[in-house]
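Q: Here's a chain of 729 amino acids. Please give me its 3D structure as tokens.
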Amino acid sequence: MNKPLFPKAVTRRDALVVGATLTGGALLVGCSPADMLSVGAKKDFGAFGPFIRIAADGTVTVVSKHIEFGQGNHAGLAAIVAEELDADWAKVRVEQAPAIANVYGNAGMGGTQGTGGSSAISNSWEQLRRAGASARAMFVQAAAGKWNVPAGEVRVQNGLVSHASGKQAHFGELLEDAAKVKPPAEVTLKDPKTFTLIGTDRVRRKDSVAKSTGTARYTQDVRLPNMLVAMVAHPPKFGAKVKSFDAAAAKKVPGVVAVHQIPTGVAVVANDTWAARQGRDALQVTWDESAAETRSSAAILASFKDLAAGKAQPAEGAKWQGFDSKGDAARAAGGTAAVEVAYDFPYLAHATMEPMNCVAVVKGNSARLVFGSQTQTLDQLNTAKIVGNLPGAIQIETLPAGGSFGRRANFQSDYVAECVQIAKKVGGGRPVKLVWTREDDMRAGYYRPLVHHTVRVTTDADGFPATWRHRIVTQSIMKGAPPGMPGGDIDFTAVEGAMGSPYLKATPVVDAQLLTPDAGVPVLWWRSVGATHTAYVMEHTIDQLARKAGKDPVEYRRALYVKAGANRHLAVLNTAAEKAGWTTPAPAGWTRGVAVHESFGSVVAQIAEVQLENGAPKVGRVVTAIDCGIVISPDQIAAQMEGGTCYGLSGAMFGEITLTDGAVDQANFDTYRVLRNSEAPTVETYIVPSTNPPSGVGEPGTPVIGPAVANALLAINGQPVLSQPFVKA
């Protein structure tokens, strides 16, 4: 998401306050005054605050408030601290922070401790730099006092503190003295030009060995004494409820301990996963579908099309909302259209490699959770509601997770709440592990919304947009959000990527509106959120306009970027075009397509080489250029571009969740097709130098590949691709 989940409770300046000594001598480096007052008497984080711990052997442990679920942010976060601290990178470790919102949420996702919107690096940038610089200053002061030399003459490099006189000591040797130093009220941060670690290939993942050897601990690896395993029978249609159930057969399965009804279905609790699954399969459940969604996905899409065309009126309480408006809207509906098209996008599953799971221990109104929590604050809040306690009293140990793409963060904490409900019914503080199968998540999870766009563009004498009329119809992801959520009167997640587009900025007359009708299918952000469809619509429409005008698609974009003052777009486009050899012929049998898009503060351009093989597109080489601000780890940026490209290509080529009479048709990868290793393109990544603060990397690579491929297909046969997945279109 481009915006934080929650509005900020403190100013940016407050969030970056460096020094204050708390009761017990703990320094909360990087926390706001309000945070310090609320936790100072309760938690002593040590001399260097909640983000840094230093051991006697000089090892530096960076405490990360953000979850690691494959994106590699722990290395980048550690490097920020290590750079300003001048630590020995080989002796830097990373540890997951506990869930404490008023400490670790003070600059994360607008006050929420969580990880999303490609924000882990960007919202920790200043905070962790100041934490590292403050700790470094404490060591310098300690050495100066111990050696009786001016602090300005003390040098720190690779964890070694030294003076020109020959005196030197490692961090561990100065630890006791440094811990007594009062943290500085202000610190001087390094000029990025002097960085020796950040921006180099030395910044590599710290968890590769553990993940390669199987020693990394995931939720499924958790084994607690006397622990039970639970599985839930969910209704086959969204919105259905349990009418009645017969647990007799389930209870006869060896290993089954109990069967409980919970708000979302019927849970079978057993001694192990196999028994829980066998018991669930033996359940006889009758569902009340009186309030369920019973339409097919085709019927839902048809209703969206009727609304966009004005053939149907929005339901009571729903209305069209303008998200970009300029000039006389009536002009956008008249004249001869150069391009008038409609686009359709299906529901998509997140399809994480590790399906949902959670371990909960509930005793009275206390609860402790162990799992891959993406938004600890929300999970604490929803757990607290169930057990009847304050959110801060809920303990969460966050483990790494095998992917998320947005799935593990939702307002209801769906699978987490299920686990807590079951553990509460089991009682006695006995641990319960909830396990979802892939089929559970594919058929009873959350989805990228189904979306319908209509676009009508007239052009001027030079073939550039003169008027742009745009309509988007889709479910709102933000509906049901807790009070105080951002977005005002409009769901920004549905229009991000279209709203504020340089193409609209370069167009004299714009009439762009959004309608968010209800449907019974639960929807959620999917990797790159609104950009998954808006990037496609904007970029594929621009290519059609360029070809209508008889202009080269790259040159056409360049002219529009100049009109809009979109210098970053122009820079990445020029880089990608140069590296791909745009002005030279493509390899024999291949055709190139281009797309450029901004999301999560970063701008990405891609040029894809495509050919048709047995009537289906095959993608060979993808040249990527990205402007993501100051680079922490070039290797990790390349990895994210590769992964994001494959994820986006998988969705555009094959991804589709369909409903028949309200029930999801797909269940696993045999029916929900994803990109195979043999189909993955070669992705080249080129980073455009920048002095801006770091911006998003995990998601911006996903939305660009779809339109780049579609534009190559347009060049092949002259026909726009107006729906996804490509294999059906």
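Q: Can you summarize the key feature?
A: The mean pLDDT is 92.
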